[in-house]
Write a structure and sequence with these properties.
Layout lengths: L1 E3 L1 E2 L5 E2 L33 E3 L32 H4 L1
Antiparallel strand pairs: 1-4, 2-3
């Protein structure tokens, strides 16, 4: 699985902005039924994931878990004389 924030015009993932960072997870399937992979000690901020090495993946093949460190409601509010800035 390779992760990226943007896509190239041809629909492939854009990774040039990552420079030397490898936003890649590798998992070898056992081939024995349903499998679950949950990485430990890492996280990826991404909008797109490229999956390779499995035949005919569908949208049901992968499920992502979303973790967020933001509070449910903002802890700071800004108000100014500029409506644009306040928005």
């Amino acid at each position: 699985m390779r992760f990226a924030e943007r896509l190239n015009p041809d629909g492939s993932i854009y990774t040039e902005n990552l420079r030397n960072a490898d936003a890649v997870d590798t998992y070898t399937l056992s081939g024995e039924g349903d499998e679950t992979y949950t990485p430990a000690f890492t996280f990826h901020g991404f909008r797109y994931v490229e999956v390779s090495g499995i035949s005919a993946p569908t949208l049901d093949t992968i499920k992502g878990l979303v973790f967020n460190s933001l509070p449910a409601s903002p802890s700071v509010r800004l108000s100014s004389s500029s409506a644009t800035l306040t928005r």
